[in-house]
Specification:
Chain lengths: 88, 160
């Protein structure tokens, strides 16, 4: 009998030019448990193909810490896709 | 005992994201105390041109909760590295006109060397790590400023 991977809910945020590109500031997303931040990005890249071109010029955060793309997400995580920062 | 003083120092610091004009006088007043002999400030404000184009105005946006967290981390770092007393770091968001202050940092210390070094470190690090973004508006269009990619862990597997 195939095991069913449970889904978890996370919050996904976009900022700067990524927010303009997707038209999204914040979204709730459901993902299979064990998904990585890279997987989350890939889902959005499918919906918004222009994101692909920015993949190497963005960073990702998980619960307000910069994170590696292969980090696994957990239920309730706040994930954000961040362009190069230009404060100050 | 040194750790206690560092914790107390952070409690006396001020970190803010504001949407109205920065009150530099009040911020400098906040860091000044009897044990200090020097205050060094950084006032970053809107320039009238960028890449040879005349600037109309700027807009700043932030991942606010994370930006405040990163500002506090910078303060913790400078307390660790330099013999300073108090820090204030304020960044303004929203629309800014030419000449208006976007970021203000003030550091007090018993001696000027630490205050200079800490203030420099604070603004340099803010510009590389705090999730705030600037959009530059010109007469004929607007661009997001190029920016810097903050350092990130290469792999989750490398975390201990």
């Amino acid at each position: 009998m195939p095991s069913v991977v449970p889904n978890i809910r996370v919050k996904v945020l976009f900022f700067g030019r990524l927010r303009e590109l997707t038209g999204l500031a914040e979204e709730a997303e459901e993902l299979p448990e064990g998904a990585t931040l890279a997987h989350v990005f890939e889902r959005y890249a499918e919906r918004y193909p222009k994101l692909v071109g920015f993949r190497n010029s963005m960073v990702v955060s998980r619960n307000q810490e910069f994170a590696a793309w292969d980090t696994r997400v957990a239920a309730g995580d706040e994930i954000a896709f961040l362009p190069p920062v230009s404060g100050g | 005992m040194a750790g206690f003083f560092k914790v107390k120092a952070l409690e006396e610091d001020k970190f803010e994201l504001v949407r109205t004009a920065v009150d530099a006088v009040a911020l400098v007043r906040h860091v000044r105390a009897g044990q200090d002999g020097a205050i060094v400030t950084f006032d970053g404000f809107v320039r009238n041109e960028s890449h040879g184009r005349e600037t109309s105005h700027l807009e700043y946006e932030a991942y606010e909760s994370m930006a405040l967290g990163k500002m506090k981390e910078i303060a913790a770092q400078i307390h660790e590295k330099f013999a300073i007393h108090r820090v204030v770091m304020v960044h303004r968001l929203g629309r800014l006109e030419i000449g208006e202050t976007s970021v203000f940092i003030a550091v007090s210390a018993p001696h000027r060397g630490a205050a200079f070094d800490a203030c420099r470190f604070a603004i340099d690090t803010l510009k590389k790590t705090v999730p705030i973004w600037k959009k530059e508006y010109f007469a004929d269009g607007a661009v997001w400023a190029d920016g810097e990619l903050p350092p990130t862990p290469p792999s989750a597997k490398s975390a201990s």
